[in-house]
Write a structure and sequence with these properties.
- It is a single chain.
- The chain is α+β, with helices and mostly antiparallel strands.
- It folds into 3 domains: 195 residues, Cupin (Jelly Rolls, Sandwich); 48 residues, no CATH class; 92 residues, Malonyl-Coenzyme A Acyl Carrier Protein, domain 2.
- It is built from 8 helices and 17 strands.
- The strands form 4 sheets. Strands 1, 2, 3, 4, 5, 6, 9, 10 and 11 form a 9-stranded antiparallel beta sheet that branches. It has a 3-stranded antiparallel beta sheet with strand order 16-12-17. A 3-stranded antiparallel beta sheet has the order 13-14-15.
- The two termini are 12 Å apart.
- The relative contact order is 0.12.
Length: 368
């Protein structure tokens, strides 16, 4: 399956827009045809394992319902939207959309959410904490956006929905199939369907700083010798007031901790953290397929060294040959890879990944 590409200057986008300001890309994918129908999306929302929700509005009242749903849930006369997360993990046709943004780190990519809305429906004015590309899949949708939000932005909690009130519109766009609206984190937006509408949201999440600090601290604790103590602070100054701790004392301790982190030799803590996913893979039985693809729920991260490559997948660490670089790039790009001409050491790693469910047999896809 051929992955489409957004029609944009990637370097200009990264320099001028990424995490800075919104960008409307007209016909980012010319002649785009939605790879999934509203009926197929509704069928997926009835699966127990699917992450789905319905947002509806009647008489200015918003309501959030969590799936799985039944056919009766879609027989309604209010303004409603169906949203299903991680559709790319269910359908390879949707997973192919990841290739639209392959100029960004694949380990930052989160998922493709697909939404369907009846005429006039939306999910209300809100903002997200992640970057998102809103690809119009079918029908039209009007998007209104405002100035970036911060901690002082007024929010109201309406039946589980955190909506912005008041919502001040700064720009308005009507998207047609193939158009894309990029939004950085914290940019408020409100989409309203014009007729029946489908939207594909390609989301990029960044790790929380608290998670980075926690993992880095764990790594530092494991590597710093217990015998190392805080060196004495300014011993040239006689303590005048018993029990007093000064800013100099605290600054000395903080500097010692920062120095310990700066000399940390473990360079695996970040890829190890980011290769972990909250979803358990499904183990594979039997022999590995002759062609493989990275399981859609997994993040593969690799680092090149002088004489080997370190790969991180599913929270595990694997040392691989430098000749495996093209294989790893292909897997990270979502391409199908053959296993016929690989070394035995590489095959050993792949068999382990296969057993764990980190790679799987592709349904469709171009060969590597």
């Amino acid at each position: 399956m051929i992955s489409p590409q957004f029609d944009l200057d990637a370097q200009l986008f990264l320099t001028e827009y990424w995490q800075k300001k919104p960008l409307l890309i007209r016909q980012a994918i010319p002649n785009f045809q939605s790879p999934i129908s509203p009926e197929e999306l509704a069928g997926l929302a009835m699966e127990a394992e699917a992450d789905s929700r319905i947002v509806s509005q009647r008489d200015d009242q918003w309501l959030l319902e969590i799936g799985p749903f039944t056919e009766g849930d879609f027989q309604r006369d209010d303004q409603w939207s169906l949203l299903v997360q991680r559709v790319d993990e269910w359908l390879p046709e949707v997973a192919a959309l990841r290739g639209c943004v392959d100029f960004l780190p694949t380990w930052r990519f989160d998922d493709v959410m697909v939404s369907y809305a009846v005429d006039g429906a939306g999910v209300g004015p809100h903002f997200d904490q992640y970057d998102v590309f809103l690809l119009q899949g079918a029908g039209n949708r009007r998007w209104r956006i405002g100035a970036p939000c911060d901690a002082s932005t007024a929010l109201i909690d309406t039946n589980g929905l955190k909506l912005i009130d008041p919502f001040d519109v700064e720009a308005e766009f009507e998207l047609e199939p193939g158009d894309v609206l990029y939004l950085p984190p914290r940019v408020p937006h409100w989409g309203t369907a014009i007729g029946e509408s489908m939207t594909y949201s390609l989301g990029f999440r960044a790790p929380r700083l608290s998670d980075l600090i926690a993992r880095l601290s764990d790594s530092a604790i494991a590597s710093v010798q217990d015998s190392l103590l805080l060196e004495d602070w300014d011993s040239t100054r006689v303590q005048v007031r018993a029990g007093e701790m000064t800013e100099r004392h605290k600054r000395n301790a903080f500097t010692a901790v920062v120095n310990a982190l700066a000399h940390l030799t473990d360079d695996d803590w970040l890829p190890e953290l980011l290769s972990e996913t909250p979803w358990e893979p499904t183990p594979n039985d039997g022999q590995m397929s002759k062609t493989i693809i990275l399981a859609p729920s997994q993040r593969l991260i690799w680092q090149a060294h002088d004489d080997h490559i370190t790969a991180h997948l599913g929270g595990g660490k694997y040392e691989m040959d430098l000749t495996d670089e093209s294989l790893l790039i292909a897997l990270c790009s979502g391409r199908t890879c053959g296993t016929g001409d690989l070394s035995e050491s590489t095959l050993d790693h792949l068999r382990q990944w296969w057993t764990l469910g980190l790679i799987e047999e592709p349904e469709l896809g171009p060969s590597h």
